[in-house]
Design goal:
This protein is 19% helix and 45% strand. By secondary structure, the protein is α+β, with helices and mostly antiparallel strands. The longest helix is centred in the first third of the chain and has 13 residues, at 2-14. It starts with a helix and ends with a strand.
Length: 111
């Protein structure tokens, strides 16, 4: 019985810890998390300027606009004049944008 208890204790000590949960950010936290920061995605990178401009680069630069509205990150990419808004969540140095339909884009700080 003692061997079983020692074995279980060693297994528990070496078992992977539960991954940290995603934390949903408020409007102020979104602004702080993104302003003058660069994120890397699987398909490119994006910079969020304090002016409200944003630059996405996946080998070809694309300029758009970003804003925080009612605790959500919103962006607009010309020539469209429609804003798309997303919840923003953080886990460590990773951020993820969650759309109304459940679509998710994940990025990490590129600094």
């Amino acid at each position: 019985m003692r061997i079983l208890a020692v074995g279980l204790a060693l297994w528990a000590a070496g078992a992977p810890q539960a991954q940290e949960a995603w934390e949903r950010l408020s409007g102020a936290e979104i602004a702080e998390a993104l302003t003058e920061r660069r994120l890397s995605y699987a398909s490119g990178s994006q910079v969020f300027y304090a002016s409200g401009r944003t630059l996405y680069d996946s080998g070809r630069p694309s300029w758009g606009y970003w804003a925080v509205r009612q605790d959500r990150y919103c962006s607009m990419w010309p020539p469209s004049d429609l804003w798309a808004c997303y919840a923003l969540e953080r886990r460590g140095t990773a951020l993820r944008f969650v759309g109304a339909a459940g679509d998710v884009t994940e990025g990490v700080y590129a600094e």
